[in-house]
């Protein structure tokens, strides 16, 4: 354990405490804001990295919540300093927020490093904001606490409840089949997202905030509280109070993000029936802390941990508010018993096991007993073979069981528009056991690995009543998606991965129990195709996209930029003052 901080050893004291010209300048500029020594002298300065914006519906309450966080900081004797950051709205940012996750991570890290701050409250929740903020804060290394946005109210229309994402896919297929008219469609549009807060299904947002909590980075129970619940306001103030003490205790993220806490996060994600995106983000966050956690770890957990959260899309009925009322994440983790290591320290400064005592499940249908799970295993599986030597990811529990072992013809598309046009063609030559393939949709090919992996079922099959088929890509898919979608195929096609060599008409064999994914094409033919392969032209001739393409790692390594990985030695020096 590192030494406690004193007013003299606070990081911010380097800016404000000295009797010299630079400190004079810093103090006088604080006074320009109407502040005085009673605000900053000897007090921890706490950054609020706030991802509020008017392009971020999931964080619309963050302007208010920031006030509550500040109230807590001041109650505990700290001084708040709000620093706005890229808001990264999953719904509005194109081509994919994944292109910008690392940009927000860099922004968070450099905001912390360059400003006079002693600790930080990270305000996020919409999909990529959680891993991005956590990655940046781990690298910055100052005490931090994550304040999750909380899920939005449940959607509803005509007496039925609507879940974010999942129900769009479902009703869109019905609309394509001609079963929903314009008026009903508009009603669904107005009913599916009814308040600030992140998606209330078990999508990427709920998955990642649960992972942050299971890793010990939030206050106990914080990730399950609905955004509009008064308890969320109290939780926000609690984050402010607690982070001030974390500064004095010098409780830094390296004490929290450890092999054991990362594994707890993986176990919890599986039990929640997590988004496939969890794989990429947890690997990336762990790597920032120097913790090795990879695809094989996920596959092993996928075989061992039952899905016990009955939340859509894995479950058939409930949404995040039901999960909260059933006891929330603490209750779920407590129910996982020995699968959770009780020893890792959380932001509370106490072992996570202590924070789980007295946690109770109030509804056994929402949080199932271990002997009555939604799925006994199969939240995630990792397939390998000659199509994915570095792995591909799927969600066996979300696909039609007859597709878990499947062989069929490949229908290969090089771009999303080409694939879209073909699947809308009523005369497409396609059969139910064919394999739809989209490539050049990976980290570099997409670019930014868009969530295109739930390829639309061809209209011809939809009209025959087919609702699932094997789909394969180097893309990701939304956490609210479902179906027999094999994703994150690595290495991706755009860097010459084997997916680039597949041709329409080749046979593709999928064996999920055997964890195999192969094209039945002989090696000599593949060598011929490899020799002919030409890399696609880069998407971005300049700018951030060009930097991203030069430095991004493949999906199995978390898609972080290689220059953001930790390096041995003393690290990045503190700024000269
Ligand atoms: Fe923000 Fe789903 S769009 S969490
Ligand atoms: Mg999403």
From TrEMBL:
Keywords recorded for this protein, A-Z: Iron, Iron-sulfur, Lyase, Metal-binding
Residue span(s) of domain Dihydroxy-acid/6-phosphogluconate dehydratase N-terminal: 43-354
Keyword hit for Isomerase: no
Matching SUPFAM superfamilies: IlvD/EDD N-terminal domain-like, LeuD/IlvD-like
Pfam families: ILV_EDD_C (PF24877), ILVD_EDD_N (PF00920)
Residues annotated as domain Dihydroxy-acid/6-phosphogluconate dehydratase C-terminal: 365-559
Record-linked PANTHER family: DIHYDROXY-ACID DEHYDRATASE, HYPOTHETICAL DIHYDROXYACID DEHYDRATASE (EUROFUNG)-RELATED
Official protein name in the record: Dihydroxy-acid dehydratase
Annotated organism of origin: Albimonas donghaensis
